[in-house]
Write a structure and sequence with these properties.
heterodimer; A: 302 residues; mainly alpha; two-stranded antiparallel sheet; globular; B: 278 residues
């Protein structure tokens, strides 16, 4: 049986599932794009206004502020978790080389990964309770440490609310980076690490020359997933502050959802979400272009 | 560096990692402790003190007043139903592009990653309109459909990645023995893929259980609400500003199924997440 013959006839397996996914998702997607071109309160007659909604959006300073927050959120949602996750994973690996069954690894993994599993509606509630201004755990802790002067009504002040949301994001996402890096390291040949130890490489040198470089593919994926996650972040903001106080923690997604249901205009909400999707699409497109060009350059070099 | 200083620095690093992991666990530990304290105990004891006696009555309230039993059933129906749809849609697609080496493989992988990464907000409102237009607004059955379909993007991506390691010669051999492609999928590929299918199912289950946006949009009635949303009402909605120990008990209840899945299937879940990044 020839290969070409064997690979024929899989259409029946491919097309139904693919069609349902693509038609449904992009059907809804372009429906939403279309609504973005209407002046429509969500019921009754709608009026075609073309790109007017986008003009209105771009003139709104709250829109730009939500994107400024998104740019800021990339740090606690993506960059810091990646760096901390990497260092922690390498430290864990170093401490347990060749002893993967150890109970301590599973304690560490549970600790860091648990925030990924708890519903954000729930962990948001826990954090609200910890950050409570009068008798929350954070304030009690500061008091206990003799740092009572640092007590804040964390979620009620614009500056501290942004810090609180950022801390929450860091808590949520570090575990993702950690488990991915840990799994990447388990592929590494322990003898290479041992050899570098015998050669006298210290911890930082090994991170720089041995363990770090071997995790390049994981780093790429973690950074990409988390950065996109930061740009479209909704739940951590929605459940901790709802975007407040005074819009000081809004993200593009919470801003859009507010426009849908805040009574302003569904058209504006749709246009906002379309903008978000386009920006994410652009980030993805650029990333893949760069990856392709690099591959080509490497191939040409060889 | 001699051997003894080396093992010294190693144990310091080790302790730092474990201490930090415990710090990460603190919010969860505190909430579990708080959920077991009586209201008087809660107001007088520190956040990390053990309860003087275990107050199960914090939990009892949820089985009466807001009928958590019904909500647990809703959550299970929605989460499991959507997982089933996702797998049903995704498995044949992954089979065609992996074992079948279908030429559209790059397109399929790109599309599934794209759909997985695009914000669900960009399709949420039309889905809401669709539910209104078809008269299905508020129906649990209707919510299962978009959750299942969108979930299939992630399932295709992960299944196709792992399934690619199945050697083509295996399918060839089965076909020479007279099996058709349908039988190969069911009898040869599916048994080999069972661990991965289980992983995908668990990840999707946790995801669906924790879902908030579509659930919030499509299910307005309190009878059809899911556990996490009903529970968050304790804090935001009808019970606004409920006592801390009740909020804590509510949190523990809402997170429990995901936590149990995690504790029992930790390795499987982690393996799945890492398979998704390769």
């Amino acid at each position: 049986m020839s290969t070409t013959h064997r690979t024929r006839g899989y259409g029946w397996f491919l097309y139904p599932g693919l069609a349902v996914l693509v038609v449904f998702f992009f059907g809804m997607f372009f429906w939403n794009v279309g609504i973005g071109l209407l002046k429509w309160p969500g019921y009754g007659p709608a009026k075609w206004v073309g790109f007017d909604n986008f003009r209105i959006i771009f003139e709104n300073k709250d829109f730009w502020e939500s994107w400024a927050h998104a740019a800021w959120y990339v740090v606690p949602f993506s960059l810091l978790p990646t760096v901390i996750g990497l260092v922690l994973a390498v430290a864990t690996y170093d401490a347990f080389v060749g002893k993967w069954g150890s109970k301590m690894v599973s304690v560490a993994r549970t600790g860091f990964f648990l925030p990924q599993i708890v519903p954000i509606a729930v962990s948001g509630m826990i954090w609200m309770w910890m950050l409570n201004g009068s008798d929350g755990a954070i304030n009690s802790l500061l008091d206990g440490l003799g740092l009572g002067s640092l007590q804040q009504d964390w979620l009620r002040e614009p500056d501290t609310a942004l810090i609180a949301v950022s801390a929450f994001m860091l808590w949520l996402q570090t575990g993702f980076a950690y488990v991915v890096f840990l799994a990447g390291l388990s592929r590494l040949d322990p003898s290479i690490v041992e050899a570098s130890e015998l050669d006298g490489a210290n911890w930082a040198q090994r991170l720089r020359w041995v363990t770090g470089p071997s995790l390049r593919p994981e780093t790429f994926v973690v950074l990409l997933f988390l950065t996109i996650g930061a740009l479209k972040v909704f739940a951590p903001v929605f459940y901790l502050t709802g975007g407040g106080p005074y819009g000081s923690t809004t993200s593009p997604a919470t801003f859009a959802i507010d426009s849908f249901f805040g009574g302003a205009s569904v058209g504006i909400g749709s246009a906002l979400v379309t903008t978000l999707a386009l920006i994410i699409g652009a980030v993805l497109g650029l990333t893949f272009l760069v990856v392709k060009l690099r591959k080509k350059a490497v191939a040409a070099h060889e | 560096m001699n051997k003894s200083t080396f093992s010294w620095s190693r144990s310091v690093v080790l302790r730092l990692v474990i201490v930090l992991a415990l710090v990460w666990l603190l919010p969860v530990i505190m909430v579990v402790l708080a959920s077991l304290k009586s209201s008087q105990d809660f107001s007088t004891s520190g956040f990390l003190e053990l309860p003087t006696e275990i107050a199960w009555k914090n939990f009892e309230m949820f089985f009466g007043g807001i009928n958590i039993g019904q909500k647990i059933l809703n959550s299970f129906t929605i989460s499991l139903g959507a997982v089933f749809i996702s797998l049903l849609l995704a498995f044949p697609v992954a089979y065609a592009v992996s074992v079948g080496k279908h030429r559209l493989r790059p397109v399929v992988i790109t599309l599934s990653v794209l759909i997985f990464l695009l914000p669900v907000e960009s399709v949420a409102f039309p889905i809401y309109l669709l539910s209104k237009l078809t008269g299905q607004y508020g129906s649990i059955g209707f919510l299962i459909m978009p959750l299942g379909i969108i979930g299939s993007a992630f399932a295709i991506f992960l299944l196709a990645n792992v399934m690619n390691h199945i050697p083509g010669s295996l399918a060839e051999a089965a076909e020479i023995d007279g099996a058709n492609k349908w039988q190969v999928m069911w009898k040869v590929v599916l048994p080999l893929m069972t661990p991965t299918v289980l992983t995908v199912a668990l990840l999707l289950f946790v995801n669906n259980w924790n879902e908030y946006l579509l659930t919030l949009l499509l299910l307005p009635d309190s009878e059809s609400q899911t556990v996490p949303l009903a529970i968050s009402m304790v804090n935001y909605g009808q019970f606004g500003g409920a006592p801390g120990e009740l909020i804590a008990a509510a949190s523990v209840l809402a997170a429990l199924p995901s936590l149990l899945v995690f504790l029992f299937f930790q390795r499987t879940l982690v393996r799945g997440i890492t398979a998704g990044t390769q």
